[in-house]
Design brief:
two-stranded antiparallel sheet, 26% helix, alpha/beta, single chain, Stationary-phase Survival Protein Sure Homolog, Chain: A
Length: 264
């Protein structure tokens, strides 16, 4: 198996090393793991692509590249440049430092990398490690992802549909490991994307020594549980959450009512 890995925390992020180990286990001794990751941190860029300027790419070692762009840029670089001779069989994005559950999903560059792979018709999985009091101070805060990541990926691969209808958006998968040590993981739960009540991004103003004003974007509380059966709720209960997603933002449940009121 040929696997392409990327992330949004940057080429030197510890979570990428965890993902490389997961990918090596999945690929097996006869497989290949290729890395194309951002040269610098790209957290929060979502599905951004560098449409108006070029992306510099550098080979850092065997099957290891850094690109000055977003995770989606890195997937494009991997598919059409680094692996132009033959596309990867699987794209893995992560392991993100922090959860990409609930509303975080919409901002995440980790998710953006997996989404771009899906739009290219490739199987794709995004992986993120939830942090909290039980694991943030561990020698390896990615312990849960490192211990359980390969098994979760195998289970998802086994559950993927064999075929996707022509013209349909490809599915991709969002995995969040709970904020506990590896031994504290209770299992795996398939879950819908949730929404943390009252948790929103905001800005905080600061004044530089020069007198100029700047705004820092800040997040909200991450340990607010989402509705039962959704991603962050499962994570906070000690479960790995797996959320199937589709690169389609249509609110299908609202279409019929809108047609009745708007169409002429």
């Amino acid at each position: 198996m040929r696997i392409l890995i990327t992330n949004d925390d940057g080429i030197n992020a510890p979570g990428l090393a965890v993902l490389a180990a997961i990918a090596e286990e999945i690929a097996g001794p006869d497989g290949e793991v290729w890395t194309v990751a951002p040269a610098f941190e790209q957290s929060g860029v979502g599905h951004c692509i560098s449409y108006t300027h070029p992306t510099m790419i550098a080979e850092l070692g065997p099957r290891r590249y850094a690109a000055e762009g977003s995770p989606a840029d890195c997937v494009l670089a991997g598919v059409y440049h680094v692996l132009a001779d033959a596309p990867p069989d699987l794209v893995l994005s992560g392991v993100n430092r922090g959860n990409n559950a609930a509303e975080n999903t919409l901002y995440s560059g980790t998710i953006g990398g997996a989404m771009e792979a899906a739009l290219q018709g490739l199987p794709a999985i995004a992986l993120s490690q939830f942090f909290g009091p039980e694991n943030a101070a561990l020698d390896n805060p990615f312990e849960a992802a490192a211990a359980h990541g390969a098994e979760v990926v195998r289970r998802i691969l086994g559950a993927m549909p064999a075929q996707v209808p022509d013209g349909d958006y490809r599915l991709f998968y969002n995995v969040n490991f709970p904020p506990v040590p590896a031994t504290g993981v209770k299992g795996i739960r398939t879950a819908a994307q949730g929404l943390r009540s009252g948790t929103r991004f905001s800005v905080e103003p600061h004044t530089a020594p020069s007198g100029r004003k700047f705004l820092w974007v800040r997040g909200g509380p991450q340990h607010t549980p989402t509705a039962p059966g959704t991603d962050a709720a499962a994570n906070l209960e000690g479960y790995v959450s797996v959320t199937p997603m589709r690169a389609d933002l249509t609110a299908h449940d609202a279409l019929a009512a809108m047609r009745e009121r708007i169409d002429r």
